[in-house]
Amino acid sequence: MYASVPDLLRLLAVPAFAYGAYRDIETRRVPDLLWPPLLVLGVLCLAVEGWNAVHAPDAFTFRAFALRTAVSVLLVGGLGAFFYVVPVGFGGADAKALVAISVLLPTYPTYYFDGFVLPHVPTTVRVFALTVLMNALVLGMAYPLYLLVSNAARGDIAPVMAVGKRVPVERLPVEHGSLLEDREGTRLTGGLDLDALRMYCRWRGVTLADLRDDPGLRDPGTLPAEPNDPTDGVVTASDGRARTDGGERDGRGAGDVVAGDGDPWGAAAFLDDIEGSAYGTSPASLREGLDVVTEREAVWITPGTPFFVTLCLGLIVAFTYGDLLFAALGALGLV
């Protein structure tokens, strides 16, 4: 394989993103330590390529390099920065990944093998970060189709079958996503976030099984006098198993918060005590969700599409096959 040094170094993005995707699948958390090394590597690669472009025999080489770098950083990186500030359906790690890609992968790499060259399908624009992003979006569009087919094969038919899956309630402590059900049935908008459900259980020092087995825990008078650390709701090895670190349920307060009788499950007391929204959870949505998961044996949840995972797949496809959208448009004779 013959390639420039910057292009060879850029291959380090593959194992880095693969590890991040693994962590995203397991915990929905991507370590922040991934980004500084990738950004530093990207700046170094840009410096080398910029130096070579400046000293190229024709001026077009530098203009093309500068234009592609500007498009990558301003468009893809700017999009990541925007979604970091305004996280509409975008996680912080997803936004940081776009910024890292925009700096590390502005220009198309080229890898020569015996008889063929990768990527197989480059674009005329040749902004590699844009190819990675478009590949991720194309691959992400296949996920609803997968859910639709798999749910139909299992006989799980519901209006939400293209965006969710039906799981036993006992599985919720180790699942990711949010409820797609309320007391009246399924709905297309997400309900209680499962991270918030784990936070609530940890705060009270109980398991979901405890809440289901003991209807008396709906009484706010059973809140612990000394609440536990709710953490951030990440799945741990102990989730779904019996816990023994709960506070005694003989107090009426949660720290300095008094839970009145009009606060079923102590939902308002929980949110007041943690001084946060727990992923946008309101007392009403927490109460609704707790009623649902304590009354039913199985519920619909939306696992969401881990964008970081599709971004990793888009990166791998970009390095090998190339641009999926450009190839599809080419097959249709549109480019």
UniProtKB/TrEMBL annotation:
Keywords: Cell membrane, Membrane, Transmembrane, Transmembrane helix. Residues 214-258 are annotated as: Disordered. Its main location: membrane. It comes from the Archaea. GO terms for cellular component: plasma membrane. InterPro entries: Preflagellin_Peptidase (IPR052218), Prepilin_IV_endopep_pep (IPR000045). Residues 240-253 have a biased composition (Basic and acidic residues). The keyword Transmembrane helix applies. The chain crosses the membrane at residues 33-53, 65-85, 97-113, 125-146, 307-334. Residues 13-144 form the Prepilin type IV endopeptidase peptidase domain. It is a multi-pass membrane protein. It is found in: Cell membrane. Gene3D superfamilies: 1.20.120.1220. GO terms for molecular function: aspartic-type endopeptidase activity. The keyword Transmembrane helix applies. PANTHER family: PREFLAGELLIN PEPTIDASE. This is Peptidase A24. The lineage of its organism: Archaea, Methanobacteriati, Methanobacteriota, Stenosarchaea group, Halobacteria.
